[in-house]
Design a protein that fits this description.
- The complex is a heterodimer.
- Chain A is of the alpha/beta class.
- Chain A folds into 2 domains: 7-127, 3-Layer(aba) Sandwich (Rossmann fold); 154-252, Arc Repressor Mutant, subunit A (Orthogonal Bundle).
- Chain A is 51% helix and 14% strand.
- Chain A contains 9 helices and 6 strands.
- In chain A, the strands form 2 sheets. Chain A has a 4-stranded parallel beta sheet with strand order 2-1-3-4, with helices on both faces.
- Chain B folds into 4 domains: 3-143, Rossmann fold (3-Layer(aba) Sandwich); 153-262 and 408-481, FAD/NAD(P)-binding domain; 266-406, FAD/NAD(P)-binding domain (3-Layer(bba) Sandwich), CATH 3.50.50.60; 484-546, Alpha-Beta Plaits (2-Layer Sandwich), CATH 3.30.70.
- In chain B, 32% of the residues lie in helices and 23% in strands.
- In chain B, the strands form 10 sheets. In chain B, strands 10-7-6-14-25 form a 5-stranded parallel beta sheet, covered by helices on one side. Chain B has a 5-stranded parallel beta sheet with strand order 16-23-17-18-19. Chain B has a 4-stranded parallel beta sheet with strand order 2-1-3-4, sandwiched between helices.
- In chain B, a hairpin with a 4-residue loop joins strand 21 and strand 22.
- In chain B, helix 2 runs parallel beside helix 6, helix 6 (119-138) packs antiparallel against helix 16 (550-560) and helix 9 (281-289) packs parallel to helix 10.
- Classes of the chains: A alpha/beta, B alpha/beta.
- Chains A and B meet through helix 1, strand 2, helix 2, helix 3 and helix 6 of A and helix 5, helix 6, helix 14, helix 15 and helix 16 of B.
Chain lengths: 253, 563
């Protein structure tokens, strides 16, 4: 039997969902793989939803909103765009970035809705099943997805996404403005750091472990693992456990 | 505890109704079987398939289901929530359920209509989306609509013909009305016009009549040389400051009409425009008014600075204006030679087409030009290439009149920000929906008319003035209003999560979120439109988006995954 991908779609109520309805009214035919979740605005789509979608076996996830400038809520789709940019950066770390898509479909673009869904479904078919889905999902990928979800949900990443326009478009209280390049330098390093921290935290799920042990498992330099461990400790997520020989063990709080 | 609250605390008891929609759904998939399978879903206690769930019979069956099976959640799988959700919500409300305890599943517009060739797959999809819909329904919460008081006072911004008409109409309906005009007199564009097509009455006749009526109204206050300085508040309860020559006048307003009109485009650099021998149509009107047109050979050029790359739109009024002014010149000087160079001539409807016929009969010459080969002004003649004869024509002139577009006011941006309403790409105000809500903005309590939205002529401005006044009166005529209850909130149990980072304040386009004196985040429910961006951005997941909560959406995702 040919591969029938499971596709999850998040559609904004005012443009894309209306566009999808218009596709129906116009009897535009497209593949039946997509399952739609209606939200009021594409900016409502929390990145956590996409990670969750992949965790439960989606082969592809598509978010659709109003065209830029046409948002029913004035600027919600700009926020969707920023969240999506972060999402893609995170998903790239596990090679899932081509399984997610952001598209603008207006209420009058029924035909285009059909085209977008058809094209995306074909694209996902060509990629084959998600390693995180199916009967026997790859546990390593699932663990990594969990780490990505945790990293994206961190206060730091959400602050950076939420404040991006303010940081790059307005001056701070000291009259300084951050340019885009500088912002993305910070942003990109935060992506890596938060992902590594989340992986370390998850690695401590079962039992307390040493820095060296965790570093070897995750293939991250022990000195970096130690730095992360100290930050996780300052955030109140991990703490010292017993000391084995001369090696301190870390455990979750 | 009220009856409703008691119900809410009970275990979910979900009823699922699968609509055949005649053969629209039932013709492709086995609705009976979809209903049968839904029985095994968690908390589903009753399922039924109906020929038309939205019919009298269907609605009665939902009500019976609620009564007989003590349902406290209802799921309908049929067409689309965009058209039928209000109907089903009020149906369950009539049976004593909170209207938010209803969930819609789309199995027609987004299923049977679009997968007609693969009905077996459409059947599987229907079962799965019903499962997702039930998963959300399990977690739905009863919500209260918010009731707000209404100040029965209107503000009309802009004292042109549209604004004057709207203000007069509201005043006549008995609403206290304030009309703010930035110029030192009322009238807007009417002040510069000579005659009005299609009946050729004097513009001053209409203007004087309107002014007189306005003066006679005791509940209508006019502020000239005035501008709106600040706008705070929300539908029914705006607090506004008007700046009149430096004096600040505070107003309490229930509804606002935007009638700011347009600005004139100055065709610097086009066809040797100099304001004397080469002028615009509005300059010509002033000359006509003063009986000051000496020219005998007049050439009018249409679409000057319009329908081009920088300004793609058609200004709508210029074709008729050119015809009107050409006829006016002819009337004063029947020997005048008038040529109109045009790209396309728009004279829709019988009145305007008749006007065009009269212009032709009067001997006015019409010559098309190609936008790729625009006419050239060379000394005392105009050269224009004519496609039909394949030759360049030389037309002598002693007056060139340029038809320039009406353009959006530069101040629109600031006003749009104050009102929290959008502008379109050319800087005009953008209505909520071009066909369904043409006089409304997406923001409740704010309406639009006249050329603020798009260049329109006097007739259309008057029509729109009436329309906007009528839309505003739908709010002003009530003592209280119900506002959507599905908004964002920072519930008591989540207050400890809030770090006070203010990211939510930054992303809210409606300024619904602020900090109080105690430095706590406060969400003003009536200002919130429920977009949910704040919740998806909140750095510590403290904000809850009612009716689209994380928990509800995650339940849908889990159901999607088959878990």
């Amino acid at each position: 039997m040919s591969f029938e991908p499971k596709i999850l779609g998040f559609l904004c109520n005012w443009c894309s969902y209306a566009g999808a309805d218009l596709a129906g009214v116009s009897r535009v035919q497209y593949p039946p793989n997509i399952r739609v979740i209606r939200v009021m605005c594409s900016g409502r789509v929390d990145p956590a939803f996409i990670f969750k979608g992949f965790e439960v076996g989606a082969d592809g996830v598509i978010i659709m909103g109003c065209h830029i400038g046409d948002c029913h809520y004035l600027e919600g789709n700009y926020e969707a765009e920023k969240k999506y940019a972060m999402l893609v950066k995170f998903l790239k770390l596990i090679g899932f970035d081509n399984r997610v898509r952001l598209e603008w479909v207006s209420a009058s673009e029924g035909t285009r809705y059909g085209e977008v869904v058809t094209e995306f479904t074909e694209h996902i078919k060509s990629l084959g099943p998600s390693p995180a889905g199916g009967e026997n999902p790859d546990n390593e990928i699932l663990t990594k997805l969990k780490a990505l979800k945790m990293a994206a949900a961190s206060d730091r990443m959400r602050s950076l996404v939420g404040r991006q326009r303010k940081i790059t478009e307005q001056e701070n209280v000291y009259g300084e403005k951050t340019d885009m390049d500088e912002f993305f330098e910070i942003f990109d390093s935060a992506i890596i750091q938060e992902y590594e921290r989340a992986r370390i935290f998850i690695a401590l799920e079962e039992k307390s472990r040493s820095v060296k042990d965790v570093a070897a498992e995750l293939d991250i330099d022990p000195s970096i693992v130690l730095e992360h461990m100290i930050i996780l400790k300052s955030r109140g997520l991990v703490d010292f456990g017993e000391i084995v020989g001369i090696t301190p063990m870390f455990q979750r709080m | 505890m009220s009856e409703e609250e008691k119900k809410e605390e009970e275990e979910p008891r979900i009823g699922v109704f699968i609509c055949h929609c005649g053969s629209n759904i039932g013709g492709y998939i086995d609705c009976k079987e979809v209903a049968e399978r839904a029985k095994s879903l968690p908390h589903v206690v009753f399922t039924q398939d109906n020929l038309y769930t939205c019919s009298e019979t269907g609605l009665a069956q939902i009500k019976k289901g609620i009564r007989d099976h003590k349902l406290n959640r209802v799921v309908v799988a049929s067409c689309t929530p965009r058209t039928h959700e209000p109907l089903f919500r009020s149906c369950i409300e009539e049976e004593g359920l909170n209207p938010y305890l209803f969930n819609f599943v789309n199995i027609r517009d987004q299923n049977t209509w679009v997968h007609q060739k693969v009905p077996d797959k459409a059947f599987i999809k229907a079962n799965e989306v019903v499962k997702m819909g039930v998963a959300k329904a399990e977690r739905l919460e009863a919500l209260d609509k918010i009731i707000v008081d209404v100040t029965p006072t209107a503000l009309v911004i802009g004292g042109g013909v549209a604004g004057m008409t709207a203000a007069l109409n509201l005043s006549n309906q008995g609403f206290e009305t304030h009309l703010v005009e930035k110029d030192n007199q009322l009238g807007g564009r009417l002040n510069g016009l000579y005659k009005l097509y299609p009946k050729d009455i004097d513009a001053s006749e209409l203007l004087d009549a309107l002014k007189k009526k306005i003066e006679s109204r005791s509940n209508l206050t006019v502020y000239t040389s005035a501008q709106v300085k600040t706008i705070e508040g929300f539908v029914g309860n705006y607090e506004i400051e008007v700046d009149q020559d430096g004096n600040i006048i505070p107003l309490k307003i229930g509804g606002i009409i935007v009638a700011v009109g347009t600005s004139l485009f100055t065709p610097e650099g086009y066809y040797g425009y100099d304001g004397e021998k080469r002028i615009t149509q509005s300059q010509l009107e002033v000359k006509l008014k003063n009986n000051d047109v000496k020219a005998n050979d007049v050439v009018m050029i249409q679409c000057v600075g319009a329908r081009i790359e920088e300004r793609k739109y058609c200004s709508n009024v210029c074709c008729m204006t050119a015809l009107k002014n050409a006829l006016a010149i002819k009337q004063k000087n029947p020997d005048a030679n008038i040529t109109i160079l045009f790209r396309d001539l728009y004279t829709p409807g019988s009145y305007y087409e008749d006007y065009y016929r009269r212009a032709r009969e009067a001997g006015i010459v019409f010559v098309t030009y190609n936008p790729e080969k625009v006419p050239k002004v060379e000394g005392e003649t105009i050269k224009v290439y004519n496609e039909y004869i394949g030759e360049e024509l030389s037309i002598p002139y002693d007056l060139v009149v340029l038809s320039v577009p009406l353009v959006a006011n530069a101040e629109n941006k600031a006003l749009a920000q104050m009102l929290k309403v959008p502008l379109e790409e050319n800087g005009f105000f953008l209505e909520a929906h071009v066909k369904l809500r043409p006089m409304d903005f997406a923001t409740d309590g704010v309406y639009i008319c006249g050329s603020a939205k798009w260049p329109v002529d006097i007739t259309e401005s008057i029509t729109q003035g009436y329309a906007a006044a009528s839309r505003a009166s739908t709010i002003l005529s009530h003592n209280t209003l119900e506002v959507e209850g599905a908004t964002s909130s920072l519930p008591e149990y989540n207050k400890a999560l809030c770090t006070g980072c203010e990211v939510c304040i930054t992303v809210c386009p409606y300024k619904a979120i602020s900090k109080n004196e105690d430095d706590e985040i406060v969400i003003t429910q009536v200002l919130c439109k429920g977009c949910g961006v704040c919740g998806a951005t909140c750095t510590n997941h403290a904000i809850v988006i009612r009716h689209f909560t994380d928990e509800q959406i995650e339940a849908e995702i889990e159901a999607f995954g088959g878990k």
